Amino acid sequence: MSREGCHLCDVAEADVARICGELGVPWETADVDSDPEWQAEYGDQVPVILIDGVEHGYWRVEEERLRTALR
User: Fold this and answer.
1) What does pLDDT average to over the chain?
2) Considering only CA atoms, which of 34, 32, 50, 51 is closest in space to residue 42?
3) N or C: which end of the chain has fewer CB within 10 A?
4) Are the C-beta atoms of residues 15 and 65 closer than 8 Å to each other?
């Protein structure tokens, strides 16, 4: 989950793109503000990383933890 104009989101997206690219894992980003339910649930925590729809982490990418979860 990301938000336009969010510096932490830009950093997290770059990290996720690099890690997923290295592991060959597809990924996508969604605008938290495009859905009222997402905004209510995740709006104060962006960026939020979900893996298979389950919250994995927020604000910063923990690289080793993400790599482990994606393997």
Assistant:
1) 96
2) 32
3) C
4) no
Please report, as a single letter, which amino acid is at residue 53: G
Average pLDDT for 10-21? 97
3-state secondary structure (DSSP) of residue 33: helix
Alpha helices, H only, the chain: 7-23, 36-42, 63-70
Specify burial of residue 13 (Cβ count, 10 A radius: 0-12, 13-18, 19+): middle
How do residues 33-62 score in pLDDT, each as one tens digit? 999 999 999 999 999 999 999 999 999 999
Both tokens of 6, joined, read 């969010």
Phi, then psi, of 30 in degrees rounded to 5: -130, 140
Contact 33, 4 (CB under 8 A): yes
